[in-house]
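Example record

The entry below shows one chain as it appears in the dataset: sequence first, then structure tokens.
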Amino acid sequence: MFEAFVTNTTGQTICLYNTVSYPVTVTDNSPTLNLAFEAAAANGVFYPFPIELAPGGSVTLVLIAGENSKSANISGVLVTVGLPWDHTVDPAGDDDTLSGAHSPLIVAKTYNSAPPINGGSCNVTIPPDC
């Protein structure tokens, strides 16, 4: 399990999406991992999409390794998450989303280890305590 953090550093509320038309994307440079987006959480609560983030608001993205992946043995894995976003709860209701004016928000992080859930230096717990 991996975690990545998103903080709204703008002066406006933003909405994060994860729909068929506007999916969260996850890529990594590991030949053995098959990471996927699992959930978004804040204050120990899973949040459904769309997620509204007020200025300064944060959310933790929870990523999981594929069924046969050996995430405990990783080192130097670059993970990139793409988050569609805009300023309205409905992505179809914003001209910037429809026109493609807002590129996905990109979160990139290099992981040198993947400690077990609920132990060690991992901050993600099930249910999350973020």
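Notes for this example: Residues 105 and 114 are 24 Å apart (CA to CA). DSSP finds one helix and ten strands in the chain.
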